[in-house]
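Email to the structure team, subject: Dihydrolipoyl dehydrogenase model.

Hi all, the expression group asked for a predicted structure before they design truncation constructs. Nothing fancy, just the C-alpha coordinates so they can compare against earlier work. One-line instruction: predict Dihydrolipoyl dehydrogenase, return C-alpha coordinates.
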Amino acid sequence: MAKDKYDVVVIGGGPAGYVAAIRAAQLGLDAACIDRWRDGEGQARLGGTCLNVGCIPSKALLESSELYEHTGKHLNSHGVLVGKLELDLAAMMARKDKLVGQLTQGIQGLFKANKVDWLQGSGQLHPDKQVKFTTHDGKESMIAAENVILAAGSVPIELGFAPFDGDYIVDSTGALEFDKVPKRLGVIGAGVIGLELGSVWRRLGSEVVMLEAQDRFLTFCDDQVANESRKMFSKQGLDIRLSARVTEAKVDKRKRSVAVTYEDEQGKHTEHFDKLIVCVGRRPASDDLIAGNVELATEERGLIHVNDHCETTLAGVYAIGDVVRGPMLAHKGSEEGVMVAERIAGMNVSLNYDVIPNVIYTLPEIAWVGASEQDLKAKGIPYAMGVFPFVASGRAKAMDDTSGFVKILAHAETDRILGAHIISPRASELIAECVIAMEFGASSEDLGRTVFAHPTLSEAVHEAALATLGHPLHIPPVGRKAK
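Reply from the structure team: attached below.
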Protein backbone atom coordinates (compact mmCIF):
# COMPACT_ATOMS: atom_id res chain seq x y z
CA MET A 1 0.00 0.00 0.00
CA ALA A 2 1.44 3.32 -1.08
CA LYS A 3 1.64 6.19 1.38
CA ASP A 4 0.54 9.70 0.47
CA LYS A 5 4.04 11.13 0.79
CA TYR A 6 7.68 10.02 0.82
CA ASP A 7 11.07 11.65 1.16
CA VAL A 8 12.19 9.86 -2.00
CA VAL A 9 10.18 8.20 -4.75
CA VAL A 10 12.17 6.23 -7.32
CA ILE A 11 10.53 5.31 -10.62
CA GLY A 12 12.22 2.17 -11.92
CA GLY A 13 13.50 -0.92 -10.11
CA GLY A 14 16.56 -1.80 -12.20
CA PRO A 15 20.20 -1.56 -11.05
CA ALA A 16 20.02 2.24 -10.92
CA GLY A 17 16.63 2.54 -9.26
CA TYR A 18 16.66 -0.20 -6.67
CA VAL A 19 20.17 0.76 -5.51
CA ALA A 20 19.10 4.41 -5.19
CA ALA A 21 16.09 3.38 -3.09
CA ILE A 22 18.14 1.14 -0.81
CA ARG A 23 20.86 3.75 -0.25
CA ALA A 24 18.26 6.43 0.46
CA ALA A 25 16.62 4.22 3.05
CA GLN A 26 19.99 3.43 4.63
CA LEU A 27 20.48 7.17 5.09
CA GLY A 28 17.23 7.48 7.04
CA LEU A 29 14.99 8.68 4.21
CA ASP A 30 11.47 7.32 3.74
CA ALA A 31 11.81 5.71 0.29
CA ALA A 32 9.53 4.00 -2.20
CA CYS A 33 10.40 2.32 -5.50
CA ILE A 34 7.77 2.07 -8.24
CA ASP A 35 8.47 -0.68 -10.74
CA ARG A 36 6.31 -2.08 -13.53
CA TRP A 37 8.34 -5.14 -14.49
CA ARG A 38 6.48 -8.46 -14.70
CA ASP A 39 7.78 -11.79 -15.94
CA GLY A 40 6.20 -14.03 -18.55
CA GLU A 41 3.80 -15.40 -15.97
CA GLY A 42 2.68 -11.96 -14.85
CA GLN A 43 4.62 -11.98 -11.59
CA ALA A 44 6.19 -8.70 -10.42
CA ARG A 45 9.98 -8.82 -10.26
CA LEU A 46 12.61 -6.30 -9.24
CA GLY A 47 15.93 -5.92 -11.02
CA GLY A 48 14.78 -4.47 -14.34
CA THR A 49 16.16 -5.48 -17.72
CA CYS A 50 19.66 -6.21 -16.43
CA LEU A 51 18.70 -8.85 -13.93
CA ASN A 52 15.64 -10.33 -15.62
CA VAL A 53 16.50 -10.43 -19.33
CA GLY A 54 19.92 -8.84 -19.72
CA CYS A 55 23.21 -8.93 -17.84
CA ILE A 56 22.54 -11.86 -15.55
CA PRO A 57 20.73 -14.39 -17.80
CA SER A 58 23.12 -13.68 -20.68
CA LYS A 59 26.13 -14.30 -18.43
CA ALA A 60 24.54 -17.52 -17.19
CA LEU A 61 24.23 -18.77 -20.77
CA LEU A 62 27.70 -17.53 -21.66
CA GLU A 63 29.12 -19.52 -18.75
CA SER A 64 27.14 -22.66 -19.59
CA SER A 65 27.94 -22.51 -23.30
CA GLU A 66 31.62 -21.95 -22.53
CA LEU A 67 31.68 -25.08 -20.38
CA TYR A 68 29.92 -27.02 -23.13
CA GLU A 69 32.44 -26.00 -25.77
CA HIS A 70 35.41 -26.44 -23.43
CA THR A 71 34.31 -29.97 -22.60
CA GLY A 72 33.98 -30.91 -26.25
CA LYS A 73 37.16 -29.31 -27.55
CA HIS A 74 39.71 -28.81 -24.81
CA LEU A 75 39.41 -31.23 -21.88
CA ASN A 76 41.27 -34.03 -23.63
CA SER A 77 44.43 -31.89 -23.77
CA HIS A 78 44.35 -31.89 -19.95
CA GLY A 79 44.08 -35.67 -19.86
CA VAL A 80 40.38 -35.53 -19.00
CA LEU A 81 38.41 -37.88 -21.23
CA VAL A 82 34.62 -37.87 -21.35
CA GLY A 83 32.05 -39.91 -23.19
CA LYS A 84 29.55 -38.67 -25.73
CA LEU A 85 28.89 -34.97 -25.29
CA GLU A 86 25.21 -34.02 -25.21
CA LEU A 87 23.40 -30.72 -24.85
CA ASP A 88 20.33 -30.41 -22.62
CA LEU A 89 19.19 -26.93 -23.63
CA ALA A 90 16.08 -27.08 -21.46
CA ALA A 91 18.20 -27.75 -18.37
CA MET A 92 20.57 -24.92 -19.34
CA MET A 93 17.64 -22.52 -19.65
CA ALA A 94 16.14 -23.75 -16.37
CA ARG A 95 19.42 -23.04 -14.58
CA LYS A 96 19.43 -19.53 -16.02
CA ASP A 97 15.85 -18.90 -14.89
CA LYS A 98 16.52 -20.28 -11.42
CA LEU A 99 19.53 -18.01 -11.00
CA VAL A 100 17.49 -14.97 -12.05
CA GLY A 101 14.70 -15.92 -9.65
CA GLN A 102 17.09 -16.23 -6.74
CA LEU A 103 18.58 -12.80 -7.37
CA THR A 104 15.25 -11.04 -7.81
CA GLN A 105 14.09 -12.57 -4.54
CA GLY A 106 17.30 -11.27 -3.02
CA ILE A 107 16.46 -7.68 -3.98
CA GLN A 108 12.98 -8.11 -2.56
CA GLY A 109 14.60 -9.22 0.71
CA LEU A 110 16.90 -6.19 0.67
CA PHE A 111 13.90 -3.89 0.25
CA LYS A 112 12.25 -5.49 3.25
CA ALA A 113 15.42 -5.31 5.36
CA ASN A 114 15.96 -1.64 4.50
CA LYS A 115 12.26 -0.72 4.79
CA VAL A 116 11.85 0.36 1.17
CA ASP A 117 8.25 0.31 -0.05
CA TRP A 118 7.97 -1.67 -3.28
CA LEU A 119 5.06 -0.28 -5.32
CA GLN A 120 4.15 -2.64 -8.15
CA GLY A 121 2.95 -0.75 -11.20
CA SER A 122 3.95 2.29 -13.22
CA GLY A 123 4.93 5.80 -12.15
CA GLN A 124 4.67 9.13 -13.93
CA LEU A 125 6.13 12.47 -12.89
CA HIS A 126 3.63 15.33 -12.53
CA PRO A 127 4.15 18.99 -11.58
CA ASP A 128 5.34 19.91 -8.07
CA LYS A 129 7.04 16.52 -7.58
CA GLN A 130 3.75 14.66 -7.61
CA VAL A 131 3.95 11.09 -8.89
CA LYS A 132 0.97 9.30 -10.37
CA PHE A 133 1.12 5.66 -9.35
CA THR A 134 -0.90 3.17 -11.40
CA THR A 135 -1.12 -0.41 -10.16
CA HIS A 136 -1.06 -3.32 -12.57
CA ASP A 137 -4.85 -3.60 -12.28
CA GLY A 138 -5.34 0.06 -13.22
CA LYS A 139 -5.92 1.77 -9.86
CA GLU A 140 -4.48 5.29 -9.77
CA SER A 141 -3.28 7.46 -6.91
CA MET A 142 -1.10 10.54 -6.46
CA ILE A 143 2.00 10.44 -4.27
CA ALA A 144 3.77 13.56 -3.03
CA ALA A 145 7.56 13.42 -2.83
CA GLU A 146 10.26 15.67 -1.49
CA ASN A 147 12.55 14.15 -4.12
CA VAL A 148 11.90 12.11 -7.25
CA ILE A 149 14.47 9.91 -8.98
CA LEU A 150 13.72 8.86 -12.57
CA ALA A 151 15.34 5.50 -13.34
CA ALA A 152 13.13 3.94 -15.99
CA GLY A 153 15.93 2.17 -17.87
CA SER A 154 15.98 1.42 -21.60
CA VAL A 155 14.46 -0.79 -24.28
CA PRO A 156 15.89 -2.35 -27.47
CA ILE A 157 15.79 -0.26 -30.64
CA GLU A 158 13.48 -1.82 -33.23
CA LEU A 159 14.15 -1.52 -36.95
CA GLY A 160 11.17 -0.62 -39.11
CA PHE A 161 12.04 -3.19 -41.78
CA ALA A 162 12.67 -5.92 -39.19
CA PRO A 163 9.92 -5.67 -36.54
CA PHE A 164 10.15 -8.04 -33.60
CA ASP A 165 7.69 -10.91 -33.87
CA GLY A 166 8.93 -12.89 -30.86
CA ASP A 167 9.61 -15.93 -33.02
CA TYR A 168 11.72 -15.45 -36.13
CA ILE A 169 12.92 -11.88 -35.51
CA VAL A 170 13.78 -11.21 -31.89
CA ASP A 171 15.51 -8.71 -29.63
CA SER A 172 18.08 -9.60 -26.99
CA THR A 173 15.32 -10.84 -24.66
CA GLY A 174 14.00 -13.29 -27.24
CA ALA A 175 17.53 -14.50 -27.98
CA LEU A 176 17.76 -15.75 -24.39
CA GLU A 177 14.65 -17.89 -24.76
CA PHE A 178 15.22 -20.12 -27.80
CA ASP A 179 13.90 -23.63 -27.16
CA LYS A 180 16.30 -25.18 -29.66
CA VAL A 181 19.62 -24.25 -31.20
CA PRO A 182 19.11 -22.44 -34.54
CA LYS A 183 20.93 -24.15 -37.37
CA ARG A 184 21.69 -20.77 -38.95
CA LEU A 185 21.52 -17.57 -36.93
CA GLY A 186 21.71 -13.99 -38.18
CA VAL A 187 22.67 -11.09 -35.94
CA ILE A 188 22.22 -7.46 -36.98
CA GLY A 189 24.83 -5.49 -35.05
CA ALA A 190 28.28 -6.69 -34.00
CA GLY A 191 28.46 -4.65 -30.82
CA VAL A 192 28.57 -5.78 -27.21
CA ILE A 193 25.17 -7.50 -27.05
CA GLY A 194 25.42 -9.00 -30.51
CA LEU A 195 28.84 -10.50 -29.84
CA GLU A 196 27.79 -11.99 -26.52
CA LEU A 197 24.58 -13.55 -27.87
CA GLY A 198 26.28 -14.66 -31.07
CA SER A 199 28.99 -16.34 -28.98
CA VAL A 200 26.43 -18.24 -26.90
CA TRP A 201 24.66 -19.81 -29.86
CA ARG A 202 27.83 -20.42 -31.87
CA ARG A 203 29.25 -22.45 -28.99
CA LEU A 204 26.04 -24.45 -28.84
CA GLY A 205 26.20 -25.30 -32.54
CA SER A 206 24.72 -22.45 -34.61
CA GLU A 207 26.32 -21.09 -37.75
CA VAL A 208 26.37 -17.39 -36.85
CA VAL A 209 26.55 -14.53 -39.35
CA MET A 210 26.95 -11.03 -37.92
CA LEU A 211 26.02 -8.05 -40.08
CA GLU A 212 27.58 -4.77 -38.97
CA ALA A 213 26.87 -1.50 -40.82
CA GLN A 214 30.08 0.22 -39.70
CA ASP A 215 33.28 -0.31 -41.66
CA ARG A 216 35.36 -0.82 -38.51
CA PHE A 217 34.94 -3.44 -35.82
CA LEU A 218 34.21 -2.31 -32.24
CA THR A 219 34.77 1.37 -32.92
CA PHE A 220 34.41 2.16 -29.21
CA CYS A 221 37.41 -0.02 -28.30
CA ASP A 222 41.12 0.62 -28.60
CA ASP A 223 42.06 -0.14 -32.22
CA GLN A 224 44.69 -2.71 -31.29
CA VAL A 225 42.19 -4.57 -29.11
CA ALA A 226 39.47 -4.37 -31.76
CA ASN A 227 41.72 -5.75 -34.49
CA GLU A 228 43.00 -8.59 -32.31
CA SER A 229 39.53 -9.55 -31.09
CA ARG A 230 38.12 -9.70 -34.61
CA LYS A 231 40.83 -12.17 -35.60
CA MET A 232 40.04 -14.31 -32.55
CA PHE A 233 36.27 -14.28 -33.04
CA SER A 234 36.62 -15.10 -36.73
CA LYS A 235 38.90 -18.01 -35.86
CA GLN A 236 36.28 -19.26 -33.42
CA GLY A 237 33.71 -19.34 -36.22
CA LEU A 238 31.80 -16.06 -35.98
CA ASP A 239 31.24 -14.79 -39.53
CA ILE A 240 31.59 -11.01 -39.02
CA ARG A 241 30.73 -8.91 -42.07
CA LEU A 242 31.51 -5.19 -41.86
CA SER A 243 30.04 -2.39 -44.00
CA ALA A 244 26.93 -4.57 -44.26
CA ARG A 245 23.86 -2.33 -44.30
CA VAL A 246 20.71 -4.40 -43.86
CA THR A 247 17.79 -3.10 -45.91
CA GLU A 248 15.14 -5.80 -45.56
CA ALA A 249 14.11 -8.78 -43.46
CA LYS A 250 11.23 -10.95 -44.62
CA VAL A 251 9.79 -13.85 -42.65
CA ASP A 252 8.67 -16.91 -44.62
CA LYS A 253 6.63 -18.99 -42.18
CA ARG A 254 6.16 -21.74 -44.75
CA LYS A 255 9.93 -22.20 -45.01
CA ARG A 256 10.34 -21.30 -41.33
CA SER A 257 13.12 -18.83 -42.10
CA VAL A 258 14.01 -15.15 -42.42
CA ALA A 259 15.40 -13.72 -45.67
CA VAL A 260 17.77 -10.85 -44.88
CA THR A 261 18.94 -8.49 -47.62
CA TYR A 262 21.98 -6.31 -47.08
CA GLU A 263 24.31 -4.15 -49.15
CA ASP A 264 28.09 -3.80 -49.00
CA GLU A 265 30.90 -2.72 -51.31
CA GLN A 266 30.31 -5.78 -53.49
CA GLY A 267 26.61 -5.05 -53.98
CA LYS A 268 23.36 -6.54 -52.73
CA HIS A 269 23.17 -9.92 -50.97
CA THR A 270 20.45 -12.08 -49.42
CA GLU A 271 21.00 -14.61 -46.64
CA HIS A 272 18.48 -17.00 -45.06
CA PHE A 273 18.40 -17.69 -41.33
CA ASP A 274 16.35 -19.78 -38.94
CA LYS A 275 16.39 -16.90 -36.45
CA LEU A 276 17.40 -13.25 -36.62
CA ILE A 277 18.55 -11.25 -33.59
CA VAL A 278 18.43 -7.46 -33.87
CA CYS A 279 21.04 -5.82 -31.61
CA VAL A 280 21.46 -2.26 -32.86
CA GLY A 281 21.39 -0.50 -29.52
CA ARG A 282 18.92 0.63 -26.89
CA ARG A 283 16.93 3.80 -26.24
CA PRO A 284 15.69 5.34 -22.99
CA ALA A 285 12.37 3.95 -21.75
CA SER A 286 11.12 7.47 -21.13
CA ASP A 287 7.79 7.13 -22.93
CA ASP A 288 4.95 8.09 -20.53
CA LEU A 289 7.49 8.70 -17.75
CA ILE A 290 6.82 12.44 -17.63
CA ALA A 291 3.39 14.10 -17.86
CA GLY A 292 2.96 16.53 -20.72
CA ASN A 293 2.56 19.56 -18.45
CA VAL A 294 5.91 18.99 -16.69
CA GLU A 295 8.57 21.42 -17.91
CA LEU A 296 11.57 19.11 -17.76
CA ALA A 297 14.40 19.54 -20.27
CA THR A 298 15.12 16.54 -22.45
CA GLU A 299 17.70 15.79 -25.12
CA GLU A 300 17.72 13.84 -28.36
CA ARG A 301 16.64 10.20 -28.41
CA GLY A 302 14.51 10.68 -25.29
CA LEU A 303 17.39 11.27 -22.89
CA ILE A 304 16.64 13.42 -19.83
CA HIS A 305 18.98 16.40 -19.46
CA VAL A 306 21.03 16.33 -16.24
CA ASN A 307 24.18 17.93 -14.85
CA ASP A 308 27.22 16.09 -13.48
CA HIS A 309 25.27 15.26 -10.31
CA CYS A 310 22.24 13.85 -12.18
CA GLU A 311 20.09 16.85 -11.27
CA THR A 312 17.44 17.69 -13.86
CA THR A 313 16.22 21.19 -14.64
CA LEU A 314 13.59 20.80 -11.90
CA ALA A 315 14.68 21.18 -8.28
CA GLY A 316 14.33 17.94 -6.35
CA VAL A 317 13.99 15.82 -9.49
CA TYR A 318 16.89 13.60 -10.54
CA ALA A 319 17.46 11.13 -13.38
CA ILE A 320 19.93 8.24 -13.44
CA GLY A 321 20.97 5.20 -15.44
CA ASP A 322 19.95 4.56 -19.03
CA VAL A 323 17.62 7.58 -19.26
CA VAL A 324 20.58 10.02 -19.02
CA ARG A 325 23.82 10.68 -20.91
CA GLY A 326 26.73 8.29 -20.77
CA PRO A 327 27.16 4.57 -21.37
CA MET A 328 24.19 2.32 -20.68
CA LEU A 329 25.95 0.25 -18.03
CA ALA A 330 24.37 -1.27 -14.93
CA HIS A 331 27.27 -0.32 -12.68
CA LYS A 332 27.26 3.27 -13.94
CA GLY A 333 23.55 3.53 -13.12
CA SER A 334 24.00 1.96 -9.69
CA GLU A 335 26.74 4.39 -8.72
CA GLU A 336 24.63 7.29 -9.96
CA GLY A 337 21.86 6.02 -7.71
CA VAL A 338 24.21 5.99 -4.72
CA MET A 339 25.48 9.48 -5.54
CA VAL A 340 21.99 10.95 -5.85
CA ALA A 341 20.73 9.33 -2.65
CA GLU A 342 23.72 10.63 -0.73
CA ARG A 343 23.38 14.14 -2.17
CA ILE A 344 19.70 14.18 -1.19
CA ALA A 345 20.84 13.28 2.33
CA GLY A 346 23.18 16.28 2.35
CA MET A 347 26.48 14.61 1.46
CA ASN A 348 28.82 16.44 -0.93
CA VAL A 349 29.76 13.54 -3.20
CA SER A 350 30.34 13.10 -6.93
CA LEU A 351 31.05 10.36 -9.46
CA ASN A 352 34.22 10.10 -11.52
CA TYR A 353 32.85 9.45 -15.00
CA ASP A 354 36.38 9.22 -16.44
CA VAL A 355 37.05 5.93 -14.67
CA ILE A 356 34.10 3.66 -15.49
CA PRO A 357 35.05 0.18 -16.75
CA ASN A 358 33.50 -1.44 -19.82
CA VAL A 359 33.37 -5.17 -20.48
CA ILE A 360 32.37 -7.50 -23.31
CA TYR A 361 31.82 -10.99 -21.87
CA THR A 362 32.97 -13.03 -24.83
CA LEU A 363 35.84 -15.50 -24.68
CA PRO A 364 38.34 -14.00 -24.46
CA GLU A 365 36.72 -11.17 -22.56
CA ILE A 366 37.40 -7.56 -23.52
CA ALA A 367 37.65 -4.88 -20.82
CA TRP A 368 38.83 -1.31 -20.80
CA VAL A 369 38.87 1.90 -18.80
CA GLY A 370 39.96 5.43 -19.66
CA ALA A 371 41.42 6.65 -22.92
CA SER A 372 42.29 4.54 -25.94
CA GLU A 373 45.43 5.05 -28.02
CA GLN A 374 43.44 6.71 -30.78
CA ASP A 375 41.84 9.05 -28.21
CA LEU A 376 45.25 10.23 -27.04
CA LYS A 377 46.53 10.68 -30.57
CA ALA A 378 43.47 12.72 -31.53
CA LYS A 379 43.94 15.01 -28.51
CA GLY A 380 47.68 15.34 -29.01
CA ILE A 381 48.47 13.97 -25.54
CA PRO A 382 52.00 12.51 -25.28
CA TYR A 383 51.91 8.95 -23.99
CA ALA A 384 53.97 5.86 -23.31
CA MET A 385 52.55 2.45 -24.07
CA GLY A 386 53.23 -0.90 -22.44
CA VAL A 387 51.86 -4.20 -23.78
CA PHE A 388 52.27 -7.63 -22.22
CA PRO A 389 50.98 -10.72 -24.08
CA PHE A 390 49.49 -13.62 -22.16
CA VAL A 391 51.59 -16.02 -24.20
CA ALA A 392 54.36 -15.04 -21.75
CA SER A 393 52.20 -15.72 -18.68
CA GLY A 394 52.86 -18.95 -16.78
CA ARG A 395 49.33 -19.00 -15.34
CA ALA A 396 47.77 -18.50 -18.76
CA LYS A 397 49.83 -21.39 -20.13
CA ALA A 398 48.67 -23.60 -17.24
CA MET A 399 45.09 -22.65 -18.10
CA ASP A 400 45.77 -23.56 -21.74
CA ASP A 401 44.59 -20.13 -22.88
CA THR A 402 47.27 -17.62 -23.79
CA SER A 403 45.12 -15.41 -26.00
CA GLY A 404 45.25 -11.65 -25.73
CA PHE A 405 47.25 -9.04 -23.86
CA VAL A 406 47.21 -6.19 -21.36
CA LYS A 407 47.86 -2.69 -22.70
CA ILE A 408 48.53 0.29 -20.44
CA LEU A 409 48.79 3.88 -21.58
CA ALA A 410 50.53 6.44 -19.36
CA HIS A 411 51.24 10.13 -19.78
CA ALA A 412 54.73 10.50 -21.23
CA GLU A 413 55.62 13.34 -18.87
CA THR A 414 53.80 12.62 -15.61
CA ASP A 415 53.55 8.80 -15.94
CA ARG A 416 49.95 8.97 -14.72
CA ILE A 417 47.88 6.07 -16.09
CA LEU A 418 45.46 7.35 -18.73
CA GLY A 419 43.93 4.11 -19.96
CA ALA A 420 44.04 0.33 -19.71
CA HIS A 421 42.83 -2.23 -22.25
CA ILE A 422 42.68 -5.99 -21.73
CA ILE A 423 41.67 -8.86 -23.95
CA SER A 424 42.00 -12.18 -22.14
CA PRO A 425 40.18 -14.75 -20.04
CA ARG A 426 38.77 -13.01 -16.93
CA ALA A 427 39.55 -9.55 -18.28
CA SER A 428 36.40 -8.38 -16.46
CA GLU A 429 38.14 -9.14 -13.16
CA LEU A 430 41.60 -7.89 -14.14
CA ILE A 431 40.36 -4.47 -15.21
CA ALA A 432 39.37 -3.68 -11.62
CA GLU A 433 43.05 -3.35 -10.68
CA CYS A 434 43.48 -0.65 -13.31
CA VAL A 435 40.24 1.09 -12.33
CA ILE A 436 41.37 1.34 -8.70
CA ALA A 437 44.82 2.56 -9.75
CA MET A 438 43.34 5.26 -11.97
CA GLU A 439 40.79 6.31 -9.34
CA PHE A 440 43.67 7.07 -7.00
CA GLY A 441 45.70 8.82 -9.71
CA ALA A 442 48.40 6.14 -9.82
CA SER A 443 51.34 6.11 -12.20
CA SER A 444 52.57 3.13 -14.16
CA GLU A 445 55.55 3.10 -11.80
CA ASP A 446 53.13 2.70 -8.87
CA LEU A 447 51.73 -0.43 -10.50
CA GLY A 448 55.23 -1.58 -11.46
CA ARG A 449 56.40 -1.37 -7.83
CA THR A 450 53.34 -3.20 -6.49
CA VAL A 451 53.84 -6.88 -5.60
CA PHE A 452 51.53 -9.25 -7.52
CA ALA A 453 51.08 -12.89 -6.60
CA HIS A 454 52.77 -15.48 -8.81
CA PRO A 455 51.57 -17.26 -10.84
CA THR A 456 48.45 -15.23 -11.66
CA LEU A 457 46.88 -13.61 -14.69
CA SER A 458 47.09 -10.31 -12.83
CA GLU A 459 50.87 -10.34 -13.22
CA ALA A 460 50.23 -9.29 -16.82
CA VAL A 461 48.97 -5.93 -15.51
CA HIS A 462 52.19 -5.57 -13.53
CA GLU A 463 54.31 -6.42 -16.56
CA ALA A 464 52.39 -4.06 -18.85
CA ALA A 465 53.03 -1.26 -16.36
CA LEU A 466 56.73 -2.12 -16.35
CA ALA A 467 56.68 -2.14 -20.15
CA THR A 468 55.54 1.49 -20.21
CA LEU A 469 58.73 2.24 -18.27
CA GLY A 470 60.85 0.25 -20.71
CA HIS A 471 61.82 -2.68 -18.48
CA PRO A 472 59.32 -5.57 -18.45
CA LEU A 473 60.75 -8.65 -16.76
CA HIS A 474 59.26 -11.54 -18.73
CA ILE A 475 59.39 -10.28 -22.30
CA PRO A 476 62.36 -8.67 -24.07
CA PRO A 477 62.78 -4.99 -23.15
CA VAL A 478 61.43 -2.66 -25.78
CA GLY A 479 62.35 0.70 -24.27
CA ARG A 480 60.05 3.48 -23.21
CA LYS A 481 58.34 4.73 -26.33
CA ALA A 482 56.70 8.06 -25.74
CA LYS A 483 54.40 9.30 -28.52
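The chain has three domains: 5-156+283-344, 169-280, 358-469. The two ends are 62 Å apart (CA to CA). Ping us if the truncation boundaries need rechecking.
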